[in-house]
Design brief:
Blueprint: E1 16-17, E2 23-25, E3 28-29, H1 30-37, E4 41-45, H2 46-62, E5 68-73, H3 80-88, E6 92-95, H4 98-106, E7 114-116, H5 123-132, E8 136-139, H6 142-153, E9 163-170, E10 192-193, H7 194-206, E11 210-216, H8 227-237, E12 244-246, H9 265-277, E13 286-289, H10 293-296, E14 300-311, E15 315-319, H11 328-332, E16 339-340, E17 348-353, E18 362-369, E19 377-381, E20 402-406, E21 409-414, H12 419-423
Parallel strand pairs: 4-20, 5-6, 5-13, 6-7, 7-8, 8-9, 9-10, 9-11, 11-12, 12-13, 15-17
Antiparallel strand pairs: 1-2, 2-3, 4-14, 14-15, 14-19, 16-19, 17-18, 20-21
The structure holds ligand LLP.
């Protein structure tokens, strides 16, 4: 009989296998969760999200930098309950569209704690940001500076003063990550090149109603080395003595126990703050960081139910979700681990297939499962970032619910989509 087995840090904090070998998340038995709420389901340990938010915030203070703010990149998990939790924890929020702005305000973020991004912000989105009093707008291109100046000249913030602005710069720093989520290279679609930055500053300063506060850079996502961040900061430091440096997000996480651990939150924040302090005036700046994945990925798991098992060349275990709830394997070749939720120690080589009509819809290309059978609950950990966010209705599959678990209590914070939802937007 299995005694309590400790789980790797790929799983949410506080997860464990109980005396029967069943996975518990936030004190809730995952087999019971699957019965009660159905599958697929995103299951999130609420305490894990809080602990990571606190670790980020405390790390800045521990480095002796008071004016340090953690800005949740809402794109990682744009769900009201998650946003409300982070708002409660005192974080700020990064939004990259009118829709994310709407979600963040609706979840209770004070508008002055919002940072608006985007390389193609529409006039409507900019107007919304001005009207709602967004704290910082990160300008990405000359067209936007002109547009924003025009809106301000036309009465932009309704008498509420100047709009504070950061200029996004692409510092030509490349971290090691998937090409699709690398943004710091010179030929990125985001931001101004270092050579253009001076002109961007001048245009912001001469535009109506804009107050240039500083610079922003985001060099990429799922970065597991800290040196590129140090180089980024050195590049920003060359651009002048602005009061605000927004260093973007990008800290990577561990997706499988086979991978080396990701840098600890404390080490990452320590490296950034120390690098900032190494430059003249660095200790006086307001520092912002924008973690997304590192706040939420390991807080969540996905539960599926096995529908069929077949053996041809491979042993194919097909479940009731796939690329509609987790696009990351298909988009980035992302590797996850999988387990039968009540029989963890698997020895059968399997491929975990999704239910969608594409050969590429494989959730885990190669995994060891304990003799999986139809009806078994399968768990894939580390799905708390960019899973819910990029979910879709391919093949008419309704999107899964989000279940928050804490101290043995489970509550639905986003309900499962229904078939009626699939036709709700039809007008004829
Ligand atoms: N700040 C900015 C301006 C960003 O563009 C991003 C992510 C972040 C912060 C947060 O990055 P993080 O800390 O989560 O790495 N869908 C992809 C990730 C795309 C990230 C895009 N921007 C994935 O599933 O890996």
């Amino acid at each position: 009989m299995a005694t309590e087995t400790s789980l790797s840090d790929v799983f949410p904090l506080g997860s464990r296998l109980d005396e029967r070998g069943r996975l518990e998340i936030g004190g809730c038995d995952t087999i019971e969760l699957a019965k009660e709420f159905g599958t697929p389901a995103y299951v999130v340990a609420e305490d894990d999200l809080r602990a990571r938010a606190r670790a980020f915030t405390a790390a800045g203070r521990n480095e002796g930098h008071e004016d340090f703010h953690v800005v949740f990149a809402s794109k990682a998990f744009p769900c009201t309950a998650v946003l409300a939790l982070f708002a409660q924890e005192g974080l700020w929020c990064d939004v990259a569209s009118g829709g994310e702005l709407h979600l963040a305000l609706n979840a209770g973020f004070a508008p002055e704690r919002l940072v608006l991004h985007g390389n193609a912000k529409s006039e409507a989105e900019l107007r919304m940001a001005l009207e709602r009093g967004v704290g910082l707008i990160v300008v990405d291109n000359f067209d936007e500076i002109e547009r924003l100046g025009r809106l301000m000249a036309a009465g932009g913030r309704a008498g509420a003063g100047e709009q504070e602005v950061l200029v996004r710069v692409t510092p030509d720093v490349r971290g090691e990550t998937h090409e699709k989520i690398s943004t710091g290279q010179a030929d990125s679609k985001f931001g101004f090149s270092v050579a253009q930055a001076g002109e961007a500053f001048a245009r912001v300063q001469s535009a109506d109603g804009l107050s240039l506060q500083g610079v922003h850079a985001h060099i990429g996502s799922q970065l597991l080395g800290l040196d590129p961040f140090r180089v980024e900061i050195a590049e920003l430091a060359k651009l002048g003595g602005f009061p605000v440096w927004d260093l973007g997000g990008g800290l990577g996480v561990r997706y499988t126990a086979d991978q080396p651990p990701a840098p600890a939150i404390e080490d990452y924040v320590g490296a950034l703050v120390q690098a900032a302090h190494a430059h003249a005036g660095g200790a006086q700046r307001r520092l912002l960081i924008e973690p997304g994945r590192a706040l939420s990925a390991n807080a969540g798991v996905t539960l599926y139910t096995v529908q069929s098992v077949k053996q041809n060349v491979s042993r194919w275990v097909a479940v009731d979700g796939g690329m509609s709830d987790n696009l990351r394997p298909m988009l980035y070749g992302a590797v996850y681990e999988a387990h039968v939720a009540d029989r963890f120690d698997g020895t059968t080589h399997c491929r975990l297939a999704g239910k969608h009509c594409e050969s590429g819809d494989v959730i885990v290309g190669e995994t060891l499962l304990d003799d999986p059978r139809p009806g078994d609950v399968i768990v894939t950990p580390a799905t708390g970032a960019y899973g819910f966010a990029m979910a879709n209705n391919y093949n008419g599959v309704p999107r899964p619910p989000v279940i928050f678990c804490r101290d043995g209590d489970a509550r639905v914070v986003v309900r499962r989509e229904s078939f009626d939802d699939l036709t709700a937007r039809d007008v004829s």
